[in-house]
Amino acid sequence: MSDAAPAGPAPVPDVIAWLMDSDPTLRWQVERDLLDRPASDWEATRARIATEGFGAELLSHQGEDGQWAGGAFFPAGFFDDPETRDLPGQPWTATTWSMTTLREWGMDPAPLIARDTVGLLARNSRWEYDDLPYWGGEVDCCINAMTLANGLWLGADVEHLATWFVEHRMADGGWNCEWVEGSTRSSVHSTLNALRALLLHEQATGGTEETRAARAAGEEYLLERELTHRLSTGEQWGPWVDHFLYPPRHVYSALRALDHFRRADRRDPRMATAIAMVKRAQQADGTWLQQHALPGHIWFEVDNPVGQPSAWVTLEALRVLRWWRDAG
Fold first, then answer.
1. Distance between CA 226 and CA 163 in Å, rounded?
2. Hey, CA dihedral for 248, 251, 256, 260, is it positive or negative?
3. What is the pTM of this model?
4. Quick one: which of 212, 162, 224, 150 has its CA closest to 188?
5. Which phi and psi angles does 62 have, rounded to 5°?
6. How far apart are CA 108 and CA 46, in angstroms?
7. Which of 92, 181, 226, 251 is most deeply packed, by most CB within 10 A?
8. What is the CATH number of domain 55-75+87-326?
9. Which SS3 state, helix, strand or coil, does residue 118 take?
10. Dihedral angle computed from the Cα positions of residues 137, 140, 141 and 144, in that order, rounded to the nearest 10 degrees
């Protein structure tokens, strides 16, 4: 057995060329956000998502009932099979995760609309929590955030979920998925997911006075803590704050929070600590590493393993830093 240390990540000689040599789900964003290509270029690349690569593969797993893996948040039968139920993490293959992934990749929803996905899920999909109807949402903030965002994307009637976030905001300004268990303090994970959905709601519909106020309060909750630490002690929230990963699923990080503010185009001096975290994580070759991976069954891999350069994290980091730099 060799005593040699494991090989480190192979350097990337040309970061932009490396990012461009990728699946359409990533490439179109590089063309639009890093290269400033004409809209006709990146729109043509984005149009390929549904017919090739990751997007086509994920679409192929949708069942005739409109669901992925036969379930709303978990695959069908997950809780009845101890061999899968007791594995680390959770499966990421069910309907909500799969639709969220396609939406976040930027796929045109037309293929799903043509399949009447909204109607199929209304008829066939129920939440594992209390057997509630799919488009009605349930009690978990992160689940309702994805359902609101996906419903807006597909044209479902989900306005009630935007109102749900107004009604379930904590007194400190954010949200917590464990409110139903009696929690009264916000969670940064839940808060960021709620904010991402409320921003999409506002961009799609203009929002209401109440939803806009809720988003502003939630953003202030994060900004008061500089996107990174506890207000009471100044301690960093957890190792996940500067452990950048793709796909992030529901997990908070400073980079993911910055990407929300980039999408909202709201800059604030209190983001400087988080920006510094992102800058420190850049490697000498200009890339960012995959720093963490959430356990659980997936349909297929879309990025490099932990310790290797991540094209997705690198894209997100370069895009955030460019947006920040453009403000001077």
1. 27
2. positive
3. 0.94
4. 224
5. -75, 130
6. 8
7. 92
8. 1.50.10.20
9. helix
10. -20
DSSP 3-state of 5: coil
Each domain of the chain, given as residue ranges in start order, spans 55-75+87-326
Q: What is the chain's Cα-based Rg?
A: 20
Average pLDDT estimate for 293-304: 96
- Residue 196, pLDDT above cutoff 90: yes
At 137, which amino acid appears?
Answer: G
Measure the CA–CA gap between 91 and 69, rounded to whole angstroms. 10
Half-sphere exposure of residue 9: CA atoms within 13 angstroms, side-chain side: 21
Query: Counting beta carbons within 10 angstroms of the beta carbon of residue 8, is it exposed (0 to 12), middle (13 to 18) or buried (19 or more)?
Result: exposed
Q: Are 116 and 168 in contact (CB under 8 A)?
A: no
Maximum pairwise Cα distance, the chain: 66
Task: Pick the closest to residue 145 from 176, 173, 117 (CA basis).
Answer: 176
Amino acid identity of residue 196, one-letter, is R
| Eight-state DSSP code of residue 294 | -
Of 168, 208, 212, 209, residue with least CA distance to 191: 168
| Closest alpha carbon to 303 in 312, 295, 291, 293 | 312
Cα 90 from Cα 309, distance rounded (Å): 25
Residue 193 in this model has a pLDDT that exceeds 80: yes
Instruction: Show the tokens assigned to 182.
Output: 């009696």
CA angle 212, 135, 296 (to 5 degrees): 95
Better pLDDT: 261 or 3: 261
Query: 247 preceded by cis ω (within 30°)?
Result: yes
How far is the C-alpha of 18 from the C-alpha of 138, rounded, in Å? 41
